[in-house]
Structure formats: structure tokens, C-alpha cells
Amino acid sequence: VLRGIRNPRLNVTNANFLTMTARAEYDFVLMNPPFYGTHWMEHVMHAFDFLKDGGTLVAVLPVTAEMGETSKHETFRKWAVKHGGHNPFSDLPEESFAASGTRVNTVILRVRKSSW
After folding, report:
1. Is the pTM for the entire model greater than 0.90?
2. Quick check: 85 pLDDT over 80?
């Protein structure tokens, strides 16, 4: 469907996102990474590398991003606070995506890339 849109500003690439070389050229990234395991962490941090200075990333994540107790979760939260301030997470209502068959509770992460 995206390939059918005729717009010189749209470039559709079919590739494994995590193997793509990041180029800091985007002002905004909006994403809903896969929730399987903790793969979403790698997706978010890799997507962040595509942002220009001053760019913003907003992601829908499982609630474990904010509440998970593993050292990997804690490391991710420290990274998120570094780039998103004291509380970079916003809770969504429970089972926000139940109508689409997803009963995982979710949060919104908002971080910003700055050069300082």
C-alpha cells in the first residue's frame, strides 16, 4: 500500500530494521515495536539513532518498560530518563488494544535527542 503512494518525500524500504545503518536524519519517530521478549528495547534504542539533534521519538511499549524489574529493564529506564526526563512514560488505559486482540497493558515512551 505504501509503495502505491506517489510522493517524492516517501521512501519505502523493506528490510530488517535492526540491520539498517542509522543515519541521524529524522525529526520524529513514531513506533510500535514488537513486544516479544525485550526486543522492543533494541528497536527503540536503534530508532533513536535515526533522530537528528532535537528530534523526538514516541513509542508504544509494554507496561514492563516502566515496571519491569530485571537489570535489562532498569538499564533501559536509565537510558529513557536520560533522554526523556524524570518520567518519560505515560500510562495508557488497561488493555487499550484489546479490540485488536492484544491484551498487553501498554505505556507511551517519549524521548528527545539533544546534543547537550
Report:
1. no
2. yes
